[in-house]
Amino acid sequence: MCENFPTYIAEEIQEPLTEDEAALLSEDDLSKLGKSRRDFLGKTALAAIAAQLLLHDQAFALKYMSDAPVTNNAVSELAMTVKMTINGAEKSVAIEPNVTLLDALRERLQMTGTKKGCDHGQCGACTVIVDGKRVLSCLTLAAQAEGLNITTIEGLGKGDELHPMQESFITHDGFQCGYCTPGQICSAVALLDEAKRGEISYVSTNISKKPPTKLSDDEIRERMSGNICRCGAYPHIVEAIKEVQNGKAEAKSS
Amino acid sequence: MNEFKYLRASDASDAVSQFSKESKSKFLGGGTNLIDLIKENIEKPSALIDVSRLALREIKKTANGGVSIGATAKNSDTANHPLVRENYPLLSQAILAGASQQIRNMATNGGNLLQRTRCFYFYDPAMRCNKREPGTGCDALEGLNNYSAVLGWNEKCVATHPSDMCVALAALDATVKVKGADGKERTIQFADFHRLPENTPEKDNNLQTGELIIAIEIPKSNFAKNSYYLKVRDRTSYAFALVSVAVALEMNGKTIKQARIALGGVAHKPWRAMDAEKLLANAKADDATFKKAADAALKDAKALEHNAYKIELAKRAIVRALKKAVDGGIA
Question: With contacts defined as CB-CB under 8 Å, which chain B residues touch A208?
Fold first, then answer.
């Protein structure tokens, strides 16, 4: 099985695979995965193998990544095949029920644009758009996404053309380190759709009437409160969203 | 995360039947609390029965003029539904005060009722917690209990109920429709749905094992024009309540015809302030009345070492919420 991995990964893995890893990559039955990885981590000095780990993880990820239904490399007896549409492309991935949508995206489908921040639904870094609604992929089981339409940060632009919200985040310096940015942008894109649908927020002053489509700064802040930015780029994020809301970025990019 | 089976139910009957066939099963709604608790190794189900796609999403008028909201309707869809916005703006406001848009988009109404306390001592396996592990003790009792309860607690548990939505539902006299493992349905008054810790703090509510929430019904009322949900928290958004107040009034000129008050963040369950409601009924809507009602609502409150502030905070929050409601709330 090892020879099936792209040569760029095989070549870059200079450190020989441990016995455990070699066994994992060559076996179809990977039911020992969790335990073996723990043994492997327990026996090896982490600092020395950090870089290698990344490459090895890519190799593991490729093993599970497939456009065709996966039938014979079940991870455990509980494994299942989940089909979903991601950024317009139909994907099929073999996962165990306890794999989150976030981990399926990042580790099984190599779509690392969606970020893992707290992994407990408190920071918003993992925000993706599912059937038009922004949700947290860290608290969604991949199994729950069966048949659903998922948009990640990778799917917002068209080829090399950025989404207006991406353009606007650049224009307004809506980030510093950039780690929360994919979640911020997915959240902001969905936010403007919510406003167009006339949805209200906790700071809306009149609940029975439709709120103005153009959101105030307070409205934007409240509606973006599920996305934490430790660099504190909040004022710029609000500016970026306002520009798209007012249509300037769209005009500029056309 | 521990391993578990994932099973998807086709309808409510199938869900309760699948539940009873598995040992240690849990119903899965939006997963916003349950998945986190599984990650924390606090919930250890062997099977999850996914009920989030059941056709229980409808929000509709009931025969007697109230509104029924389906158990699998999302919190955000519920808060924004025209029937809810128009007839129960208090419920919209309370739902929108909770969590973040992402979480409200995932969370189901049934699941909101079943979310567990966010008491730090419940979440930390290094601490003793009777709710997490019955019989071990409560380290919050003499710990950093600034977020703990001031009403209805005992030495076994000082945890608070985390929901905002449930505070509004308590004030609006909602009922909860559930389906049992035997397929039979029953209706639970909202006041009887959640419970105080007593001798079994591990039990948050009075559901029987395997019972599934089908819908929540809110009776017809005249509270829409004068209601308000006030939430006080450590930061202005995306935080649990230190204290919250749901107020619903029916006014007759400057006189309060009848009132409903429920408090969040102060007890093991959403806390109905019946004594305060009685004082407000047929009383003049002025500051003196509001102050008397607030005192009555908190007269049985008992502070722990670090949460005495909650008692005064709750009183002032009640007065402010009453003023806001009289002034026309947010309808």
Answer: 85-86, 89, 224, 331
